[in-house]
Design goal:
alpha+beta; 135 residues; two-stranded antiparallel ribbon; elongated; 4 helices; single chain
């Protein structure tokens, strides 16, 4: 463990040795995480779609089950960006997307954005005005 980290822990805990006690109840296991990660193999593409319920990407499970990849409509009414990145250990895609988009990636914010989106009028391939999913 780094010298500065030990000093901070000693000041905060008054007894640094408690962290490395043989008694599991009082130990803090784990290791350092990198503060900065540099994504590798980053690429992106713009896709067009009309029905927001049709997947734009193939899930890993679908690939393993040898399902056909989704067919992307080239004449769709809406655009989406598909981002592909390789991240290192203990790095999370949601954090990377938060940095790229400069937006809140929490589930409640993303849900509200989805509900307000114009493409929701086309769910299930329904044309505007005939959508049974929306009041």
């Amino acid at each position: 463990m780094g010298k500065k980290a030990k000093v901070c822990l000693c000041a905060a805990l008054k007894n640094y040795n408690v962290i490395f006690s043989p008694d599991r109840e009082y130990t803090l296991s784990g290791s350092y995480r990198k503060i900065l990660h540099l994504p590798q193999n980053m690429s992106w593409s713009v896709l067009q779609y009309t029905d927001p319920e049709i997947p734009l990407a193939q899930a890993d499970e679908d690939k393993l089950l040898k399902f056909d990849p989704p067919v992307i409509a080239e004449d769709g009414k809406f655009m989406a960006i598909q981002i592909s990145i390789t991240l290192g250990t203990a790095a999370y895609a949601t954090m990377a997307l938060r940095e790229i988009t400069k937006m809140d990636t929490s589930s409640h914010v993303q849900s509200s954005l989805t509900q307000k989106a114009e493409d929701q009028l086309y769910r299930g391939g329904m044309e505007e005005g005939f959508n049974t999913f929306r009041e």
